[in-house]
């Protein structure tokens, strides 16, 4: 097949990959080239005759035309020759000003025909090319604009960052106007003040503060990287503002330049720290933000904030080793220097929040055990959550071990409500579904309680040991009546039943007193309940142990209210009788306790019903309302 064309060549392509070696030795065409160029003349279609070798080919190109010229930089133009120099800007060099329809300006990144600086003396964009550092710097400055100060590259720029730059430019113009107005000041009359023989000015920084705050509000709505750039750009602009001493000073933190700048910078730092911990910034981009922030010219009152953005990336070697449990000390030697895992409390709180969201509780506990911070008292509150995070991992045994019962341990700072929260967690293997940063948030929340994955409720004996350990070191829990009520409710019914516990043998009751007090008075770190004590009457043994602890509590000081506590033993009158027998060893305190009960009975609407139950155990209680009024 042949077609008459304007070109004077025909390109013939052949493919003989399917031929084997033996066939090639016999076929002469195998020794011929794979591409055959056949020169032709303008002839009619019927007169076009291909050579025999071409007729044997699998593919024959019978028509070709010049390639279409695509958009290109001027130095790559296939039509006009380009002469490269390093930094010639005075005039076009050797025809570099010539362009085709598809030539682009390397500096402006637009068609050369629309570049106003193409042949302009002193700039001459027509001489620019990518192999010159001089022209590269000019290109970056032109295309990056204000973003160049952040040391960003063109590959990092997207539409969001372009928008951020435009918003920064508008903000800077507005801020210049606002600060100029502040420098001029306003007369007293403009503030509705009139003081005889006083013509002073008031320099109010509030409008400037509000302008910056408004811009930061806009930044909060932008894409992550764009928001970070806008915040730092704003900080660069207002950080150099200064106070003008006036005759009159407004009593407002926003009106004072130093105080207002501190407030604004704190807001910016808090937002950027959150982004660095929570967002998926690359390590390179984060490093550029930190470098820009450090280059700011901090005035003396703000120099303490210079290192506020020194946030370790998540892939930091020391941080990773701590999270993985490979480093239990929180420091390492790097090139002879000691690198210690020290972070600001704000960063610690952010990491705590994120790791909770990601359900990485084990890593969170490792981190909190070794990290050092600048606010120990606030950090102590976060560390006190380690038992809770261990519970959320489903490891109740480790959670109990993370509650040291010393006077300075976590349990010593329990509140009654927090104790009851942990008691419920251990008993039900459920927990409130929420993100916390201090223990009190566990107690006052309407969050839904959900099962903890892989967690198994503690046995009653372990619950009793936990409660007694906490009572030893936390007076608030030991004194609280509600804590005793909940604890007794756990042990006053048999496992799997709602009825009372059958009374044990009299011999067991007689021997139980010595065993119970030996357990309670033992000051070792852990509560040890002898196996023999629980062997015959396991439920009764635990009830007597808690009842005995309650007896010691009553002998120590008044228990108020006492009726709800005693009422929990309504179905186990034998245990209440055993308690009363033990209280009788201290006649004075026992008499005082009876008076306390009588006083409570006077103030309760259900006094008669409770009285009948107690009188069966405590005969000395008065049954006459007349006696109550005496």
Number of helices: 27
Describe the sheet with the most strands: 3 strands, antiparallel
> What is the end-to-end distance?
130 Å
Q: What is the strand arrangement across the widest sheet?
A: 2-1-3
CA radius of gyration:
43 Å
- Secondary structure: helix percent: 40-55%
Overall spatial form: elongated
Can you count the beta strands? 12
Task: Describe the model.
- The chain has 27 helices and 12 strands.
- It is mostly helical and 630 residues long.
- A 3-stranded antiparallel sheet has the order 2-1-3, with no helix packed on it. Strands 4-5-6 form a 3-stranded mixed sheet, with no helix packed on it. Strands 7-8 form a two-stranded antiparallel sheet.
- Helix 6 runs antiparallel to helix 7 and helix 10 packs antiparallel against helix 11.
- The radius of gyration is 43 Å and the shape is elongated.
- 27% of the residues are buried.
């Amino acid at each position: 097949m042949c077609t008459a064309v304007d070109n004077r060549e025909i390109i013939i392509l052949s493919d003989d990959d399917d031929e084997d070696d033996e066939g090639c030795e016999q076929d002469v065409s195998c020794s011929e080239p794979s591409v055959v160029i056949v020169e032709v003349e303008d002839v009619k279609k019927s007169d076009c005759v291909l050579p025999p070798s071409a007729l044997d080919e699998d593919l024959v190109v019978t028509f070709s035309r010049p390639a279409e010229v695509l958009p290109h930089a001027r130095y790559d133009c296939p039509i006009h020759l380009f002469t490269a120099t390093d930094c010639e800007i005075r005039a076009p060099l050797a025809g570099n000003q010539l362009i085709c329809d598809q030539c682009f300006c390397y500096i402006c990144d637009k068609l050369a025909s629309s570049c106003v600086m193409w042949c302009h003396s002193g700039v001459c964009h027509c001489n620019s090319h990518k192999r010159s550092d001089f022209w590269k710097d000019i290109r970056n400055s032109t295309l990056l604009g204000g973003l160049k100060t952040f040391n960003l590259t063109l590959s990092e720029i997207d539409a969001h960052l372009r928008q951020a730059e435009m918003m920064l430019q508008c903000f800077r113009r507005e801020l210049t106007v606002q600060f100029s107005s502040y420098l001029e000041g306003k007369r007293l009359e403009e503030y509705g003040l009139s003081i005889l023989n006083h013509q002073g000015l008031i320099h109010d920084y509030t409008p400037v503060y509000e302008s910056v705050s408004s811009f930061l509000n806009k930044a909060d709505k932008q894409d992550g990287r764009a928001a970070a750039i806008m915040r730092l750009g704003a900080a660069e602009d207002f950080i150099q503002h200064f106070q003008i001493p006036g005759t009159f000073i407004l009593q407002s933190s926003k009106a004072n330049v130093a105080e207002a700048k501190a407030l604004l910078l704190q807001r910016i730092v808090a937002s950027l720290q959150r982004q660095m911990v929570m967002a998926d910034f690359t390590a390179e981009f984060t490093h550029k933000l930190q470098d820009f922030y450090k280059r700011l010219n901090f005035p003396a009152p703000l120099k303490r904030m210079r290192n506020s953005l020194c946030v370790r990336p998540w892939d930091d070697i020391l941080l990773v080793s701590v999270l993985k449990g490979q480093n239990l000390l929180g420091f390492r030697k790097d090139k002879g220097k000691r690198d210690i895992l020290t972070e600001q409390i704000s960063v610690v709180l952010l990491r705590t929040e994120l790791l909770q969201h990601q359900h990485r509780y084990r890593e969170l506990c490792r981190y909190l055990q070794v990290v050092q911070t600048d606010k120990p008292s606030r950090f102590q509150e976060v560390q006190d959550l380690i038992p809770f995070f261990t519970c959320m991992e489903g490891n109740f045994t480790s959670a109990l071990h993370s509650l040291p019962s010393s006077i300075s341990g976590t349990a010593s700072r329990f509140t009654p409500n927090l104790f009851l929260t942990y008691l419920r967690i251990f008993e039900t293997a459920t927990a409130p579904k929420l993100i916390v940063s201090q223990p009190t948030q566990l107690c006052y929340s309407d969050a839904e309680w959900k099962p903890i994955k892989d967690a198994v409720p503690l046995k009653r004996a372990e619950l009793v040991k936990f409660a007694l350990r906490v009572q030893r070191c936390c007076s608030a829990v030991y004194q609280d009546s509600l804590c005793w009520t909940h604890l007794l409710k756990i042990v006053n019914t048999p496992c799997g039943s709602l009825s009372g516990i059958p009374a044990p043998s009299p011999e067991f009751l007689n021997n139980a007193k010595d065993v119970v007090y030996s357990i309670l008075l033992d000051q070792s770190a852990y509560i040890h309940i002898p196996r023999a004590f629980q062997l015959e009457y396991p439920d009764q043994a635990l009830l007597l142990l808690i009842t005995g602890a309650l007896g010691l509590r009553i002998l120590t000081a008044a228990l108020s209210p006492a009726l709800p506590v005693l009422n929990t033993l309504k179905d186990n009158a034998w245990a209440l009788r055993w308690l009363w027998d033990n209280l009788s060893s201290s006649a004075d305190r026992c008499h005082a306790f009876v008076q306390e009960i009588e006083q409570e009975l006077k103030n309760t609407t259900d006094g008669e019903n409770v009285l009948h139950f107690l009188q069966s155990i405590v005969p000395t209680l008065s049954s006459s309302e007349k006696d109550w009024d005496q």
